[in-house]
Write a structure and sequence with these properties.
Layout lengths: L9 E3 L2 E3 L6 E6 L4 E7 L3 H19 L3 H17 L1 H12 L3 H24 L7 E5 L2 E9 L2 E5 L5 H14 L3 E5 L7 H12 L6 E3 L4 H9 L3 E7 L2 H13 L3 E5 L5 E4 L5 H13 L11 E5 L3 H11 L21 H16 L4 E4 L20 E4 L6 H4 L6 E7 L2 H8 L4 E2 L1 E5 L3 H10 L4 E4 L14 E2 L2 E2 L4 H6 L2 E9 L12
Parallel strand pairs: 7-8, 7-10, 8-9, 10-11, 12-13, 12-18, 13-16, 15-16, 18-19
Antiparallel strand pairs: 1-2, 3-4, 5-6, 6-22, 11-21, 14-15, 17-20
Helix pairs in contact: 2-4, 2-6, 3-4, 4-5, 9-10
């Protein structure tokens, strides 16, 4: 039986290569639970070879002038935009996200970041500083790339996350060995081919495939100078610990259980729209989702009524239908996890089920085997419930009622995680006060979810280390070198004859 897409190989030294392991796995279309392609699994020897290719490419790429690197990255961004719909179609089939999302967000926002860093380095963003200490002495600094870096992608925004990592990495002058998630691997070889076509030297960007064991071998390799990981907290803590143990640089973008605080004066329409975007966009599979929605007790009836009216506009269905705005969950194992949380919320937490539940939504017959779940809202929740405390990573909203804003802020911060937070209010002074108190690295006022290339994003507490994007993002891919130059012609010494 032939599959819709050809077998994906490994990609290193500027071209595709068959994996030496002889092993494959299949990537699955979440909408139909049917296979899309066979994916070759990298053996340790293949990973070693990819790392050697990246190490060999590093001197050439790191010594390429920033303006020349910028031209190549600009060309890659242009190729991504030209092939937007083609790549978005693959992302839709591989991830289960509606085409209305992947065609307008996934490829576009990744290309935006590539373009941002190309502009940044082309305009002198990597320049160091010069300081005159005294008439005959001065200090200058240089920003120096790290070397061969490892990127570990996530399954929810496959090509976007690959570009968030590789754009800053390559702009800084590093080379990369990238491992896509085993649940959404189809984009990896496509991105590598685009980089090669744009003029990136052979070996500067390489792709290996496999599960956690492949990632573990890659990130522990002694040649790897930095690890950039996006994924769940437990795995990220292990990766960060291993990186620290061998003195590797690390950026960790991990999970969250983010609070959305609706103030008493908030516009009801905006607050409900914000809560829905923070819970149901991308079928709830967004690490920054605001799944703890704090609502004033006085607004309870109005908020729930309007939410129930608007939730009718969540439309599961054929992924390439322009009306569809809600896809399936990404995999069978994730579907079972999310449904188990919904059942726990009903049976054990005893939260009030406002809408949704563990049953599948109504979808056409050819989609019924897919990993579909209903948008689900629990109300009358309390802070001790498991569905409130743990990251579900699905379309499951928990509404928590409060009496004072100070109480809401205190409860919002009562978590080990600190990825994102937001506030809805008409009082901008209050908005800034609340945002200032919320313990999170990514925050929004009267909106939710937008993350432009110019905005540095990263989590606090157990939600991550470092940031991606923005001016701060590229600093994580560089090391600083300071040099003091003395022009006096004499060395001051304490070792002089008395």
């Amino acid at each position: 039986m032939s599959l819709p897409y050809p077998t994906r190989q490994l990609y290193y030294n500027g071209q595709a290569h068959a994996a030496s392991s002889g092993k494959t796995f299949q990537t699955i279309n979440p909408a139909t639970a049917t296979p899309l392609a066979d994916i070759q699994i990298a053996a340790h020897a293949d990973i070693d070879t990819a790392i050697v290719a990246a190490d060999k490419a590093f001197p050439e790429w790191s010594n390429t002038p920033p303006i020349a690197r910028a031209r190549i990255l600009h060309k890659a961004a242009a190729l991504l935009r030209e092939r937007n719909d083609e790549i978005a179609k693959i992302e839709t089939l591989d991830s289960g996200k509606a085409f209305t999302e992947t065609s307008t967000v996934d490829v576009v926002t990744g290309a935006d970041v590539l373009e941002y860093y190309a502009n940044f380095i082309g305009g002198g963003g990597l320049n160091g500083e010069t300081t005159q200490l005294r008439e005959d002495a001065w200090v200058y600094t240089k920003k120096v790339p790290l070397g061969v870096c490892a990127g570990i992608g996530a399954w929810n925004y496959p090509i976007q996350i690959a570009l968030w990592k590789s754009a800053a990495c390559l702009a800084a002058g590093n080379t990369m060995v990238y491992k896509p998630s085993e649940y959404t691997p189809l984009h990896g070889q496509t991105l590598a081919e685009i980089y090669t076509e744009a003029g990136l030297p052979a070996g500067a960007f390489n792709v290996i495939n496999g599960a956690g064991d492949v990632g573990a071998y890659l990130t522990s390799h002694p040649t790897i100078a930095k690890v950039s990981f996006t994924g769940q907290v437990a795995t990220g803590m292990k990766v960060a610990g291993a990186a620290a143990g061998s003195m590797k640089y690390a950026t960790m973008e991990l999970g969250g259980k983010s609070p959305l605080v609706v103030c008493p004066d908030a516009d009801l329409e905006s607050a409900v729209d914000g809560a829905m975007m923070a819970n149901f966009y991308s079928t709830g599979q967004v690490c920054t989702n605001g799944t703890r929605v704090f609502v004033p007790r006085s607004m309870k009836a109005a908020f729930e009524k309007r939410l129930l009216e608007k939730i009718q506009h969540v439309r599961p269905g054929p992924l390439f239908d322009e009306a569809t705005n809600f896809g399936p969950l990404s995999s069978a194992i994730h579907y079972e996890k999310v449904v188990s949380y919904i059942r726990h919320g009903i049976e054990t937490d005893k939260a009030t089920l406002l809408c949704g539940g563990p049953e599948k939504p109504v979808v056409p017959k050819d989609l019924q085997a897919g990993f579909w779940v209903q948008p689900t809202v629990f109300t009358d929740c309390n802070d001790s419930m498991r569905i409130v405390k743990e990251e579900i990573f699905g379309p499951v909203m928990s509404i928590l009622y409060y009496d004072t804003v100070d109480e809401a802020v205190k409860r919002a911060n009562a978590t080990e995680l600190g990825l994102a937070a937001g506030v809805f209010t008409k009082d901008l002074n209050q908005a800034h006060r609340v945002i200032d108190q919320l313990q999170a690295g990514i925050t929004w006022v009267n909106t939710w979810g937008e993350s432009p290339a110019e905005m540095a994003v990263g989590g606090w507490k157990k939600s991550g280390l470092g940031v991606e994007n923005g001016r701060r993002g590229i600093e994580a891919w560089l090391q600083n070198k300071s040099t003091l130059v003395d022009m006096s012609g004499a060395v001051v010494s304490v070792f002089a004859k008395l």
